[in-house]
Amino acid sequence: MAEKVKEKAPKLEVLKPQAPIRRFDVFAEWNRIKAIKEFGFPEDEAKAYGLAVAKVVAARKFYGHRIKYRGATKAFLEGKTEEKWWQKLATPQEFDEKIVERMGREFYEKVFRPAIEKAYEEGKDYMDIRDSIRKEWNRLLKEG
Q1: Is the dihedral of CA 36, 42, 47, 51 positive or negative?
Q2: Would you say residue 58 lies in a domain?
Q3: Residue 91 belongs to what domain range?
Q4: How far is the C-alpha of 90 from the C-alpha of 41, rounded, in Å?
Q5: Which distant-in-sequence residues (6+ apart) come within 8 Å of 73 by Cβ?
Q6: Which strand (E) or helix (H) includes residue 40?
Q7: Residue 44 and residue 92 in contact, taking contact as beta carbons nearer than 8 Å
Q8: Domain count of the chain?
């Protein structure tokens, strides 16, 4: 009678972020995607835009600053101005440093970016996903 040999299942590697995922990260990515999908921005322009929008909202929320860019994106898209206000506040390289490299490029490319894009494509609202989408990633990070 043949004896069954138990094979060990390969251990699955779960990608975890290198740092906690913040609402700021989700918001910057959400707006990067929006800039590409809705405004037709190229990738580098979209990175700067996403990070700039997140900075404006964070400045308003945490410091009470009012930055006078209300309607500036619409004016640009309608051809009323050539000013790309977001270029004054952020660069694509800064997006990579403050968002991508902070959480880890592999995690960003394989987990974070696809998950945020999927939620966006499914028509979910940012306010509905901003905390729930981060919950498991941050739990994994805490577990070590």
Answers
A1: negative
A2: yes
A3: 23-137
A4: 15
A5: 39, 49, 85, 86
A6: none
A7: yes
A8: 1
Q: Determine the Cα angle at 69 with ends 23 and 83, to 5°.
A: 115
Two structure tokens written together for 97:
């440093």
The answer to whether residue 10 is domain-embedded is no
pTM for the full predicted model: 0.82
The Cα 52–Cα 31 span in angstroms is 9
Structural domain includes residue 56: yes
Question: How far, in Å, CA of 16 to CA of 66, rounded?
Answer: 35
C-alpha pair distances (Å), 57 with each of 35, 36, 53, 60, 86 = 16, 20, 6, 5, 13
What is the distance between the alpha carbons of residues 76 and 63, in angstroms, rounded to a whole number? 27
- Residue recorded with tokens 């981060």: 134
Query: Counting every residue, how long is the chain?
Result: 144
Instruction: Spell out the per-residue pLDDT of the chain, length 144, in tens.
Output: 555 556 666 666 789 999 999 999 999 999 999 999 999 999 999 999 999 999 988 877 665 556 666 666 666 666 777 778 888 889 999 999 999 999 999 999 999 999 999 999 999 999 999 999 999 999 998 886
Per the structure block, which two tokens stand in for 137? Answer: 């990633």
Owner of token pair 């990633």 = 137
